[in-house]
């Protein structure tokens, strides 16, 4: 099964502030839902808790150093290798959905990155998406979306694939 990372960042790689998304972009959230629906979505404990409820229509998998107590309606794993063994052996994509530490841990194992770049600079960011080495990753697709009444920033959806 391919391992795909999915994220949205600003122009300085910011993906979060105080365990929250730094923007509200319904069109970007719809893209996330479309790309992850019916798949296993792996995230860290803090990201899972920030959702306030599990993602519907997807298997919610949480990488945590703890025993998973208090994490309802999800499966837990404790290591990257355990997650890869458990979720990367079938025919569906494993979708890695953050946060920053999880992205860093899974980047060496990823086959594809779906990265939305939001056309803004968010001050105070404390979680960042890792840099993608252009000798390892190539852009295989992109689509620009203008800002509108519901989406205060324009953004571009990029697809990166491992070379």
From TrEMBL:
<dbReference type="GO" id="GO:0046654">
    <property type="term" value="P:tetrahydrofolate biosynthetic process"/>
</dbReference>
<dbReference type="GO" id="GO:0070401">
    <property type="term" value="F:NADP+ binding"/>
</dbReference>
<dbReference type="GO" id="GO:0046655">
    <property type="term" value="P:folic acid metabolic process"/>
</dbReference>
<keyword id="KW-0560">Oxidoreductase</keyword>
<dbReference type="GO" id="GO:0006730">
    <property type="term" value="P:one-carbon metabolic process"/>
</dbReference>
<comment type="similarity">
    <text>Belongs to the dihydrofolate reductase family.</text>
</comment>
<dbReference type="GO" id="GO:0046452">
    <property type="term" value="P:dihydrofolate metabolic process"/>
</dbReference>
<dbReference type="InterPro" id="IPR024072">
    <property type="entry name" value="DHFR-like_dom_sf"/>
</dbReference>
<comment type="function">
    <text>Key enzyme in folate metabolism. Catalyzes an essential reaction for de novo glycine and purine synthesis, and for DNA precursor synthesis.</text>
</comment>
<dbReference type="Pfam" id="PF00186">
    <property type="entry name" value="DHFR_1"/>
</dbReference>
<dbReference type="InterPro" id="IPR012259">
    <property type="entry name" value="DHFR"/>
</dbReference>
<keyword id="KW-0521">NADP</keyword>
<feature type="domain" description="DHFR">
    <location>
        <begin position="2"/>
        <end position="162"/>
    </location>
</feature>
<dbReference type="GO" id="GO:0005829">
    <property type="term" value="C:cytosol"/>
</dbReference>
<protein>
    <recommendedName>
        <fullName>Dihydrofolate reductase</fullName>
        <ecNumber>1.5.1.3</ecNumber>
    </recommendedName>
</protein>
<comment type="pathway">
    <text>Cofactor biosynthesis; tetrahydrofolate biosynthesis; 5,6,7,8-tetrahydrofolate from 7,8-dihydrofolate: step 1/1.</text>
</comment>
<dbReference type="InterPro" id="IPR001796">
    <property type="entry name" value="DHFR_dom"/>
</dbReference>
<dbReference type="GO" id="GO:0004146">
    <property type="term" value="F:dihydrofolate reductase activity"/>
</dbReference>
<keyword id="KW-0554">One-carbon metabolism</keyword>
